[in-house]
């Protein structure tokens, strides 16, 4: 008689018994890794500290491609791959097949739900691969729900995937409410209508002052300086801000996302969604794709070294603490899993770096564009260059065919011209990217961001440290834009930390492994064994 013995330890690691009932995937827009360390002493016990002290901290987590923008970032987190495969090559890009600029979540075939504006004509139709959320829907025979929530449409829609029950985002202007699109529904559910009528948005048109005494914000630069944007209607970018008064000159309800109150209302809405949609209440794992956007808007406006950014993160820390407390009570401690990352990081203000003797490229894009266009016209004739966007030059293939020009020769000539220009650090061409396989360095990041079908033909890399005179930006291949937090916490997550490099495309396969489900179909990342192996010990 043949006896097959199964060791009790060798059972499937992914039985339903200990599966999380709810996954909350959190993307913090423009969060740099160093904010965890920089503001650590001021964080409270229940937020970032609780996640790190109990969960797993990947301290050397990076974007593996450029451009490091919001649309590609959110998509890469949830698809486990880079623009090379998922096709979201920018927030906006030149569609060479229609000859028009397109937006990453734009969909002209759907209509707005909950607003009379066009802010709801959105869907994930341009995303070419599946998400973790899609795979969970397929795995659970569509019993496990997906809800996406963010201030930004792209922050809600792309993470929620093709098969989401719903995605909701914020419409500012005269709306001040969360909306959706006919891609998901014909009208807003009752609970959303109720939320929108509750006066929440109005309650955030209030004074923004620092959470703690501003004198204690010693981790940031001085409040008044020449490197910050600020609001129309207020001369200096200094605390306090009368948001109600300033709203009139700053787009009415659109001002809320420009303050930490945008994160507050996002959390309010997310908790309302968990309750009304009964997320995490049965054995089929549900997923809430949650993205906090105000962190990005405050960063762009005031710069990464500002007291405004510090205050925004101290308040976000409270939001996280409130979220965990809510989940403990309503889903149960140990019954949910959280991951937290960012869609890109952000650099210091270029002008600030220069003021402390640190060199930056300060590339003048307008000037450069005119110069290489003149060069191309003179060398090859007018009409060769079709579009310039996202640091990419799109060439006209029909023009080259008619003029009997070899594309590789054209690319090389322009490449040589470009590399001689000030502010230009590196240049890559389509021919190089299609005939080489870069395994590291900047070429690797450019190649991962290069989609054969959608991308341009010549890619320009600016000098390290490039940026504007006021406020922070992002998009580059450099550490300040690629180094983001990656934290896991809750069910099936052991405590630990590592400096071993992880990449943003590893998140989706790691979560899929944790849930015991199929990886998204374009996955190029890997499950993070250092954490998962520890969990199954
Ligand atoms: Zn972003």
What's the structural blueprint in terms of helices and strands?
Layout (H helix, E strand, L loop, with lengths): L21 E7 L5 H5 L9 H7 L1 E7 L7 H10 L3 H4 L5 E4 L4 E4 L8 E2 L18 H8 L6 E5 L2 H8 L5 E6 L5 E5 L8 H8 L2 H4 L3 E2 L32 E2 H5 L13 H16 L9 E7 L1 H9 L4 H26 L3 E6 L8 H6 L9 H16 L4 E5 L2 E4 L1 H6 L4 H13 L4 E6 H6 L5 H9 L8 E5 L16 H4 E8 L5 E3 L3 E2 L3 H9 L13 H7 L2
Parallel strand pairs: 1-11, 1-12, 2-18, 2-19, 6-7, 6-11
Antiparallel strand pairs: 2-17, 3-4, 5-8, 7-8, 9-10, 12-17, 13-14, 14-16, 15-16
Helix pairs in contact: 3-6, 10-12, 11-12, 14-16
Zinc ion (ZN) binds next to α3.
GO molecular function: alkaline phosphatase activity; metal ion binding
Protein name: Alkaline phosphatase
Pfam families: Phosphodiest (PF01663)
Quote the distance from N terminus to C terminus: 32 Å
How would the global form be characterised?
A: globular
The molecules bound to the chains, other than polymers, are: zinc ion
Query: Per CATH, what is the topology of the largest domain?
Result: Alkaline Phosphatase, subunit A
Report the average pLDDT across residues: 95
Strand content: 15-25%
> Assembly type of the shown chains?
single chain
Q: What's the number of domains?
A: 2
CATH architecture of the largest domain: 3-Layer(aba) Sandwich
* Biggest sheet features: 11 strands, mixed
